[in-house]
Structures are given as C-alpha cells and as structure tokens.
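In the design runs reported in the main text, the only information available to the sequence generator was the tokenized backbone. The following block is the verbatim input for one such run; it is reproduced so that readers can re-run the procedure and compare outputs position by position.
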C-alpha cells in the first residue's frame, strides 16, 4: 500500500508541476520561465523537479501536452452538447484565449521549429499532435459537409491541413502583431467554406 501511495503522490506532484509551469510560462514566457522558478513555486529543488522529467525540454513538452488535454476536454464537452458546431466554437475560443497567453504561444511556436530535428524531445509530440488534430478536424469537416454546412466539393483533408497551418501561422503573427484577432480570422475562413446560393454568385455582365 505504501508503494501505491507513493506512486499516487508522484502523479499528483507531477500534475501540480505541469499546472504551475503552465501558469509561470503564461505569465513570464518561454524564455523567462526558469526551472528554478517553477521548482520554487511547487516547493522542490531543481533536481527534485527534474526527477519527474528528463530535462527542461521534456517538461515543456509535457506542459504543452497538458494544455492540449485541457483544450480537448473543453472541445469534447462542447461536441457532446452542440455537435460539430460546438467543437468548432471551442476551437475558436482556444484561439481567442491564446491571445491572452503569449508566453504559451511563444513556447509552442519555438518548440515547433526546434522539433524539426528528429532528435529533439518535442519531435514525436508535434508529429502525433498534428496527425490527431488533422484527423479530428477533417472528420468534423466531413460531418459539416453531410449537414450541408460546408461545400461538399471541398477536400476535407486539404482543408484540415490548411486550417491547422493557418492557426499555427496566426499564433506566430500574433507574437509580433499583438492586436491580431486570431479567432475572427478563423471564423471568417470557416464561414467562407459554406455552400454559396446561386443568388450569391456574381452576375455575368
């Protein structure tokens, strides 16, 4: 029983570290969030903190993974309540909330570039994340096409890739252009995917 208790405490401490790191990075940014500051905030030494993670890079990858889990839980709840439209609204809300945490956006963007190296700690995370995100998004687009909310002539996989790339690109732009309304851009692009009525087609001279 003592072993199980120790394991449960380790899981709880790991969760505390991740949530604390999320807060520290959101406030101070990727480069301003030191292992020492995060360790101090959870009452550990730097060595004690890194006992739970292999390195600072692995810690940051798990921070992003934990943020994804929180966002996914919100999207699933919205999907259960309002269907695909609700999940899409949740995605737009994530883009809106990301504008308030540039530190996390910088962490995500910086690691996304560094992860191009297959040896980097974040490489597998970004490959898996992009695959899952695009699969979920393309599935949602197919359902919206079936419901008549998206032009059936459009390719769902291509759209999913384009929207994901747009979201990532917008986050990079927002680091420079702080007043950029990322959510509005996403909403505009999604709205443009809707079928056009014949009456909306421009008349030929």
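Verbatim output:
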């Amino acid at each position: 029983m003592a072993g199980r208790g120790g394991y449960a405490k380790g899981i709880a401490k790991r969760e505390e570290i991740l949530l604390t790191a999320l807060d520290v990075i959101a406030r101070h940014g990727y480069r301003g969030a030191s292992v020492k500051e995060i360790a101090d905030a959870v009452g550990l030494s730097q060595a004690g903190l890194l006992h739970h993670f292999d390195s600072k890079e692995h810690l940051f990858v798990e921070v992003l993974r934990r943020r994804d889990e929180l966002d996914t839980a919100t999207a699933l709840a919205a999907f259960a309540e309002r269907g695909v439209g609700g999940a899409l609204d949740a995605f737009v809300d994530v883009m809106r909330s990301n504008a308030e945490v540039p530190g996390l956006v910088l962490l995500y963007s910086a690691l996304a570039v560094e992860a191009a190296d297959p040896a980097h700690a974040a490489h597998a995370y970004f490959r898996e994340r992009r695959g899952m995100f695009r699969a979920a998004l393309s599935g949602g687009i197919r359902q919206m096409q079936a419901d008549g909310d998206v032009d059936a002539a459009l390719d769902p996989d291509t759209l999913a890739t384009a929207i994901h790339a747009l979201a990532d690109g917008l986050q990079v732009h927002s680091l420079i252009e702080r007043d950029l309304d990322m959510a509005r851009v996403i909403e505009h692009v999604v709205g443009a995917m809707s079928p056009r009525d014949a009456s909306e087609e421009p008349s030929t001279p």
